[in-house]
Write a structure and sequence with these properties.
By secondary structure, this protein is mostly helical. It has six helices and no strands. It folds into two domains: 1-38; 44-132. Helix 2 packs antiparallel against helix 3, helix 2 (44-59) packs antiparallel against helix 5 (115-126) and helix 4 packs antiparallel against helix 5 (115-126).
Amino acid sequence: MLLAAPLQDELERSGILWAIAVLNKVLCNLALSRSMTYEKQLTQEEVIRMLAQIEQMVEGFPELPEATKEKSLRYLGAAKEEAQSDEPDKHLAAGNLKRMAETLKTTSETIASTKTLWENVKPVLQELPIWFGVAKSFFGF
């Protein structure tokens, strides 16, 4: 069946546009899956070491008010304990870490001398979201 030339041209163009859209989607999905593959997958042991590192930073920071230190260590301790279990509830542990992060961040905004603690804890926290299965922005940055 022959179609009028303008209609035939339109069908060919829409087919090409459709093919381009499909190809674009495939390439975007491929790029996304590759970027996720290249992110470092942490082991449970590495996560536990990182949490212990944060714990040492908080415990050893003399300018941190005692009540804030205790609160932060309570949240961190709960996250660490959960991370150490045979089948960790990563959502629960991440929630506790988020509360610890919020506590330290708020304190760093109100007590200038504690800002360096937050600046030291942040890079460690930034490596953890993939293991906990949360968004990179989950811990507040």
